[in-house]
Amino acid sequence: MAAAVKAINAKIRSNPVSDYFCSTHFWGPASNFGIPIAAVLDTQKDPEIISGTFTGALTVYSATFMRYALAVTPKNYLLFACHFVNFNAQLTQGYRWYDYWYGGGQDRWAKIRAEQKKLASTTESIAESAKDKVGAAVQEAKKSVS
Fold first, then answer.
1. Spatial separation of the C-alpha atoms in residues 22 and 13, rounded to whole Å
2. What are the helix and strand counts (H, E) for the chain?
3. Cα(8)–Cα(22) distance, rounded to whole angstroms?
């Protein structure tokens, strides 16, 4: 059994592409990309839910590991890209957090929330009106067919 595992490992390591895709140099950053993806998606959410402390910690973490990705041998550009995206997303979140709590953003977001609520109620009334008209048209069609 050990000989079979050794043979498979030797086969994988003989091809540079499969060697890379079977290494931690690839899978570490690939699995870590969930953090920057979540951070980028969070930039579209309400800034009231942003944690300033956690955003600061993630900014320092990403800056540290951007440096680490270039300090290791061989350089890990995929890890660098992962932390570069996360670093910039966290800077954006940090700005949004600061603007919301210290830059007058609460007033702007109160207006945005009120506008969203108004649009939601308008949309609901339009949907109800359309539903009633479709129901009436269906009844008319049934009368014509019978």
1. 9
2. 7, 0
3. 12
**Are the beta carbons of 25 and 76 closer than 8 angstroms?**
yes
d(CA 77, CA 41): 23
As a whole number of Å, the end-to-end CA separation of the chain is: 77
Alpha-carbon distance 63 to 59, whole Å? 6
Residue type, 57: A
- What's the number of CA atoms in the CB half-sphere (13 Å) around residue 34? 4
Q: Which residue has the tokens 């091809």?
A: 15
Domain locations in the chain? 35-103, 107-145
Taking the C-alpha atoms of residue 131 and residue 140, their distance in angstroms, rounded to an integer, is 14
In the block, residue with structure tokens 């997303």: 89
pLDDT tens digits, one per residue of 93-117: 999 999 999 988 888 888 888 888 8
Summarize pLDDT for 17-55 with one digit per residue, the tens. 666 666 666 777 778 888 899 999 999 988 989 999 999
Helix, strand, coil percent values for the chain (each to nearest 5): 85, 0, 15
Phi, psi of 103 (to 5 degrees): -115, 20
